[in-house]
Amino acid sequence: MQTGVHDPDTRGNGVIRIFRALFLCAFLTAPAVAQQNIEQRKIEYLIDAIAELQHATFIRNGIEYNTRQAVEHLRLKLNLAGRRVRTADDFIVYCATGSSTSGGKYRIRFADGQVRDSAEFLRGKLALYKPPG
Q1: Which member of 45, 70, 75, 125 lies 3.0 to 4.6 Å from 58 by CB, making a disulfide possible if both were Cys?
Q2: Residue 133 counted as domain residue
């Protein structure tokens, strides 16, 4: 066979190989994508748990914030954390435990006056998480 000349019987083999490689990549990455989607739903569930607190106060660096402000701050930290946050636990550790500036813990004062660390509250909520469906 001469170099540079294509055998008409083997032209389709390259296309088939490419198709097989693409299928294999899709097959292998699907579980990782599915797991990432599950973790995103868990993070949203945790943020919603803060948003839904009635008459609660979020305490950050000694200053009290309402739940709307707390949710805005947590979403900002989540966006800034980028790829460091891959799981709901990462979200709690990197975004919802405490101030990266002062090192002080985030706390929640509930309507009944009880005060808890936000990480403790969110870990409790995460333990109760049930996937939709």
Answers
A1: 70
A2: no
User: CB of 107 within 8 A of CB of 94?
Assistant: no
Does the pTM exceed 0.85? no
Token digits of residue 38 = 């599950």
Please name the helix (run of DSSP H) or strand (run of DSSP E) that holds residue 7, with its range, or none: none
Residue 3 domain-assigned? no
Domain hosting residue 85, numbered range? 11-128
Q: Is residue 4 part of a domain?
A: no
Distance (Å, whole) CA 40 – CA 98 = 21
User: The tokens 């636990």 sit on which residue?
Assistant: 89
Q: What is the dihedral angle through the alpha carbons of 112, 119, 57, 128, rounded to the nearest 10 degrees? A: -60
Yes or no: say if 71 and 120 are a contact pair by the CB < 8 Å rule: no
Q: Give the DSSP H or E segment for 115.
A: strand 115-117
Per-residue pLDDT reduced to its tens digit, 25-79: 445 444 544 556 899 999 999 999 999 999 999 999 999 999 999 999 999 999 9
Residue 67 is predicted with a pLDDT of 97
State the total domains in the chain: 1
